[in-house]
Amino acid sequence: MARMTWAILALASLVAVACAGGANVGRSSATPNPDPYDESPTSVVANAAIMNKDGKVVGLASFRETRTGVRVEIKVTGMPPGQHGTHIHGVGKCDGPDFTTSGGHFNINDKIHGVPGAVTAHAGELPNLEVGSNGTGSLVFYSPHLSLNRAQSNGLAFGLGTAVVIHAQEDDYKTQPAGNSGARIACGVVRLANP
User: Which residues face 42 on adjacent strands?
Assistant: First the structure.
């Protein structure tokens, strides 16, 4: 019995020593990371002021790195109600009124036009933007195909840069080649906020 008591006391002492001091005082190894799951692993962010064909700012797109990909958030106002195809285009230019200077969809790996985020879809694919009857709309999407690293080919600031383009019509993600979303009605050049 004395031997068992001694073993219990020795074990309790070891536990007390292991738990005392150190950087993780009071933190169980089973405690999950208290930081928000999608917290940015870097401080790099990017933005795009979205303009309509008249040069009026109608929205903002913001981008930041997260643990699940680049978080894309778009907010607009004063836009036509309905579903609008929304994409990242492969040239960082937005000359109105038709915004054709933004080039085609951002497609660095020669993927097909398809469902946003799918392995087979090109990097510039974003979900449709739904605009309500009051002219406002928003979307949030996590893209595994994009980066904010200007040195990577899938980086939004790589090479000629990129632009956010909003189309007049809904994108069905099926039509090949891409281009079934109608006219380009708004555009914004993506710029790193802290290059």
Answer: none
**CA 59 → CA 81, 88, 151, distances in Å?**
14, 15, 27
CB 82: neighbour CB atoms within 10 A? 15
pLDDT per position as a tens digit, 121-164: 888 999 999 999 999 999 999 999 999 998 999 999 998 999 99
Q: Read off the pTM.
A: 0.77
DSSP letter, residue 160? T
Rounded CA-CA distance 55/119 in Å is 35
Task: Give the three-state DSSP class for 193.
Answer: coil
**Is 75 domain-assigned?**
yes
**Element containing residue 5 per DSSP (H, E):** helix 2-19
Range of the domain at 187: 45-192
